[in-house]
Amino acid sequence: MDWDDLRYFVALVRCGTLSGAARLVGAEHTTVARRIAALEASLGVRLFERDAKGYSLTVEGERIVEAAYSIEDEIFGLQRQSASGPKGMIGTVRISAPPVFASSFLVPRLAPLRTSHPGIILELAGEYRAVSLSRREADIAIRMNRPEPASIIARQIGKIAYGLYGARNYLDHVAEELWTFIGYDEKLDHTPQQRWLLSIAKGRPLVFRTNDLASLRTATIAGMGLSALPRFMGDSEPTLERLPIDGSAASRDLWLAYHPDLKRSPRIRLVVDHLVDTVREYKGLLDPD
């Protein structure tokens, strides 16, 4: 039995489906099935029951799953210790950040870092999901709420302010009493920017909903209605106008997190410092007021 087979086993336990496990480990679902079969053959036991809903552990699978988790933790611990070793400014740094913040704000401001330190390879994943820093799904995570668990190093590095925006053409041709509103889908009604938008709408329904911020921005530009957008997106779009509002606008805290095992890594420290300095330098764009 080798660790790779056990890694696929742990991924399938976590996800419950071949496709989910394949996405988690970055492989084809057929590869996951083959590695699970190889593990079962090497152990001489059946580890999973297979049905229409997916994969569930057998009694034999339940017996080894905790040991598999422990081995996984040890392996990832060794990888983190290796990443913090004496490689200097050479190696890969994986960053996870909200998609639009990653593409619109971070990417253009990572170029100077690459220019000054060509030995560093940057991987940037635009995603909302909670990533496991202990399993090195990312080295550094940027989120709009405090990342968990408490054992990781997390610090608030800034804020993202929101504004109420409409297309200039829309505002020129639609009377205020006929304004419509567009926003996130109902799963995101709990977010500060959505609650703020709904308070402005005062009971009027949202005529367009999406779970994608880029789509919301495009819909606003197209004149579908008024929306709450981050200031760094809305203020930079010449076809949009930010409307004056009564009271305070919505804002979100911006958090940066990484695993304590990586704090001695020169390249991780370099990228962390660059991200912190960048957010501070562009405070006037992210949080103008």
From TrEMBL:
<keyword id="KW-0238">DNA-binding</keyword>
<dbReference type="InterPro" id="IPR058163">
    <property type="entry name" value="LysR-type_TF_proteobact-type"/>
</dbReference>
<dbReference type="InterPro" id="IPR036390">
    <property type="entry name" value="WH_DNA-bd_sf"/>
</dbReference>
<dbReference type="InterPro" id="IPR000847">
    <property type="entry name" value="LysR_HTH_N"/>
</dbReference>
<dbReference type="Pfam" id="PF00126">
    <property type="entry name" value="HTH_1"/>
</dbReference>
<comment type="similarity">
    <text>Belongs to the LysR transcriptional regulatory family.</text>
</comment>
<dbReference type="GO" id="GO:0003700">
    <property type="term" value="F:DNA-binding transcription factor activity"/>
</dbReference>
<dbReference type="GO" id="GO:0043565">
    <property type="term" value="F:sequence-specific DNA binding"/>
</dbReference>
<dbReference type="GO" id="GO:0006351">
    <property type="term" value="P:DNA-templated transcription"/>
</dbReference>
<keyword id="KW-0804">Transcription</keyword>
<dbReference type="InterPro" id="IPR005119">
    <property type="entry name" value="LysR_subst-bd"/>
</dbReference>
<protein>
    <submittedName>
        <fullName>DNA-binding transcriptional LysR family regulator</fullName>
    </submittedName>
</protein>
<dbReference type="InterPro" id="IPR036388">
    <property type="entry name" value="WH-like_DNA-bd_sf"/>
</dbReference>
<keyword id="KW-0805">Transcription regulation</keyword>
<feature type="domain" description="HTH lysR-type">
    <location>
        <begin position="1"/>
        <end position="58"/>
    </location>
</feature>
<dbReference type="Pfam" id="PF03466">
    <property type="entry name" value="LysR_substrate"/>
</dbReference>
